[in-house]
Amino acid sequence: MPSSYRNFRNSVPWLILSLEAVFIVLFYFVFPYDDKFIMSYPDVNLMMIFGFGFFLMSLKRYGFSTTGFNLLLIVLGVQSHLTVILSVLVLLLIEATVSMTAVVISTGAVLGKANPVQLILMTVLELIVFRMSRWMSNTFLLVTDSISMMHVHLFGAYFGLAVSACFSEPSPRTDKNARTPKSDLLSMLGTLFLWVFWPSFNSILSDRKWRVIYNTYFGLAVSAVTAFALSVLTTKDGKFRMTHIHSAVLAGGVAVGHAAHSIQYPWIAMVLGLLASGIAILGSYCSQGCLNPPLKLHDTSGVHFTFGMPAVLGALAQVILLIIKNWNNLPSMGYLVMIQVGAFCLTISVALITGLIAGLILNLRLFKSIPVSKYFEDQFYWEFPHLAVGF
Amino acid sequence: MPSSYRNFRNSVPWLILSLEAVFIVLFYFVFPYDDKFIMSYPDVNLMMIFGFGFFLMSLKRYGFSTTGFNLLLIVLGVQSHLTVILSVLVLLLIEATVSMTAVVISTGAVLGKANPVQLILMTVLELIVFRMSRWMSNTFLLVTDSISMMHVHLFGAYFGLAVSACFSEPSPRTDKNARTPKSDLLSMLGTLFLWVFWPSFNSILSDRKWRVIYNTYFGLAVSAVTAFALSVLTTKDGKFRMTHIHSAVLAGGVAVGHAAHSIQYPWIAMVLGLLASGIAILGSYCSQGCLNPPLKLHDTSGVHFTFGMPAVLGALAQVILLIIKNWNNLPSMGYLVMIQVGAFCLTISVALITGLIAGLILNLRLFKSIPVSKYFEDQFYWEFPHLAVGF
Amino acid sequence: MPSSYRNFRNSVPWLILSLEAVFIVLFYFVFPYDDKFIMSYPDVNLMMIFGFGFFLMSLKRYGFSTTGFNLLLIVLGVQSHLTVILSVLVLLLIEATVSMTAVVISTGAVLGKANPVQLILMTVLELIVFRMSRWMSNTFLLVTDSISMMHVHLFGAYFGLAVSACFSEPSPRTDKNARTPKSDLLSMLGTLFLWVFWPSFNSILSDRKWRVIYNTYFGLAVSAVTAFALSVLTTKDGKFRMTHIHSAVLAGGVAVGHAAHSIQYPWIAMVLGLLASGIAILGSYCSQGCLNPPLKLHDTSGVHFTFGMPAVLGALAQVILLIIKNWNNLPSMGYLVMIQVGAFCLTISVALITGLIAGLILNLRLFKSIPVSKYFEDQFYWEFPHLAVGF
């Protein structure tokens, strides 16, 4: 494979370095620091870089690429985001980091199939499109900033799925995308980090911090409990399956995220967590059997049922809560519901359409996608051979 | 083993789901959120879910169950605790999480021997009994809330030991409860997390936050140093033993916990840390030789010398400090000492008696305990076979 | 090897215990707590104990020693530091922990070659000398405390290199200091922790907290991006090398640390991050080929190019920034530049000279250094054999 190696060597470093040059030049025109740049620093970064870096580590031969590329994409993405929104002269590091969640989730769908050049391009494209989609929500539908930000999981999951539909499927006989106990345990390490920091994540842009933290905590708690119950019910021998636990324990946090600021009773968050966990596990059961094969979708980390469907559930729940709350004021209710449904449809359709376009662009000959036989292999990108150890 | 598989499949999910249904219904009657629910969110949760999840991971074939069941029990336990104390209309998430320490410590004593149904029942029973024991201390002995909470290690360790006495011993010839360098290293990961967050944990319910943090830090520091020294002195070849380090580095934090708010000089905390570490290592030496065999105790993670005996030392130290402080006021001293000794005796006797009862209940035929030959095996509960890899 | 075992057993525990006795006696004379001991507790400790503990874990058979000795040295060092500075009656735990960075970095250079007795002596010596060096900067050059503290990386790296020059080189044919994917992955875990907490670390003693956090973040982000680009350019097949990523992603944080409080535009921090990453990777390329062999240096964890050279770059950048800022006021500029250059030369020459002396002391017959054939082996110190598993 000398040609693709050379191609890789020729394109990656120059792409990265020229991107950095662009960033530095653009940052040159940024005003100096002022006192408005306050944020609570380590929480979100710990979650994005450490939590997601290990959460996605489920492929046995793809550990280096998972953590390494995750760090690369996040730091590139944060800089691009800050560059993209320079026009409004706001330099909000935390918003940039939260936006990166969309990219990290999309990465999960094409993990092991896209090469670094494709991933970097996807990062830049997705951030621009997500920012556009939020701008459209904010301008035309008058959705507030913190609510449109909570569409980040929805956008990330469906954008990633659309991109992944354009990649060739891996050969079904290969065992390279198998999991091992070791990779599952390291993935559990990341999952527990995400679980613990999810309430901080949901509350970070909200002004009703404590309510959001409590609601998210209860949603997450119930979805973790339900995950264990449903996993036993859906597997053949009545055992737990680690993949179920990984995806379903987080589903509650995703679903509650949309409406967390407006839920007034803990039991509502708990019911949402229960439903989200059920959707995640039953969804994974159905989508492997009847949804993915005809669509030729291969969703490496199961982002569809971990982030996509729970986010749809969360958006639905928010509409229902609005209807119940404004029941005695029909015109206002109609208006509010319309806005919510509009924002949801806008986000999901922008994600699917631009995701497909991005997927087609990424599979142009120019970016020489890697051969299917080299999918899920660290050895293709990293110097250290994983020959004998099969991690 | 088709019968026990079926039994497991039949009971676990329905037990979990019906517990969740009960929680949701009870939470329905809770008042909506108000502004009093303030806490410092991620610290304690990071410690409980991530730290303890990996700290207990010392069995080579039990990694999935250790982290997975730890998460399940904590989220179930927090919800039961909140349900149990609904009567007083206080919804304090942080108190619930701190109480869970008792359960997690008890889990360590029966790790690999109890099945999930037994663990869930133990969680619910222990939380109710611990709450009862604290209520008795608070009401009859007028002990303050934050002090009775610091009995959490004492209660957890002796409750766990009493429960564990009712389980059959593992066959001495099996090597399944052996450690491997990998499991020890992951356990070290959890230990370091616990070590770093222990000062936050001790100070979380205290009103003299900084004094408690400093005292705990000095206690932990000296016990870590002493652990290395004593480990070399007690092993055959004069080498370090990882198990000693794991248990003894935390002993200082446990011992200082009881009196941290009233220690006025760092050197007292340091002496306590030194003694706690000594007790933990010498205790592990003696208890394996002469204490456990006649009592037929098998204490998987060594909770007796990591948490039990250092907590007894801490309670004793608190009494001695009280005597010294009130030396010139004998009647007041007598009263205060009586209260402390009374609270200590109450906690330990409630823990041992209810622990034995709980152990007998858990070993009823109804809950079909697992055969001794299947102890310490992930494979019994989880779908993924740990066949070739021996993690 | 019975003699060295006996020697080890005889010296380590008594050395540790007598050190502890000295600390406790000295702490006895410390004033009781007062309200001035405020710090932001867990961040720095999480970084030092957890982050560095796993960051240094790159040797395949030295995992126990890396994490274990790291904890031992940090807690011993914090106590010695507090004892050393008792004369000024300031009991600042956080300053003690930050000072320990120097020791931890020096440890990286002699990792696997020094035994615990040597490491403990090095810790005590280095802390005293570093405190002396800072005191000289503060007194004679009137450098502020928070600036002289940022020389911690510079001091640690060159002290460690000088000490390491006095140890025998490992045999070039041995493969014990090889890396495995597993040790690299655990090292990545520590690296990500350090990356996330580096901005907190740089800002912890500064009074312009947010500016320092932002500058460090941008420096780190650009150095992470550059690390990937340069790694592809410098390796033979055009692949990434994990060692490059580990060292270069942190280089930006080290370089920005010196001047972070005075950098007014993000692009300056970004350029510094780019240069630091380049220096780290090109430096590792050159030093392995032409610098280390003639000097007979063996730098186990590459602290020279990860911490040493980026710190030199940072000091240089600070001087250049001073020149630009005070261009129109030549006398003041000359004075300020002289102070900065003086402080830099003072730190680096004290580090090199005392490092050499410390290295010679450590290699006295009294401390019986371990034979070269036993370098990089956990088995020499720890009871658990790493025989079959090769972690």
Automatic annotation (TrEMBL), chains A, B, C:
Does Endoplasmic reticulum show up as a keyword for this record?
A: no
InterPro entries per UniProt: Ammonium/urea_transptr, NH4_transpt_AmtB-like_dom, RhesusRHD
Q: GO terms for molecular function, please? A: ammonium channel activity
Its primary localisation, in coarse terms, equals membrane
Q: Where is the signal peptide?
A: none
User: Carries keyword Membrane?
Assistant: yes
Keywords tagged on the record: Membrane, Transmembrane, Transmembrane helix
Task: Write down the membrane topology.
Answer: Multi-pass membrane protein
Q: Any idea where this protein resides?
A: Membrane
What GO terms in the biological process aspect are recorded for it?
ammonium homeostasis
- Single GO cellular component term: plasma membrane
Q: Give the family per the record.
A: Belongs to the ammonium transporter (TC 2.A.49) family. Rh subfamily.
Could you tell me what this protein is called? Uncharacterized protein
Origin species: Melopsittacus undulatus (Budgerigar)
**What are the top taxonomic ranks of the organism?**
Eukaryota, Metazoa, Chordata, Craniata, Vertebrata
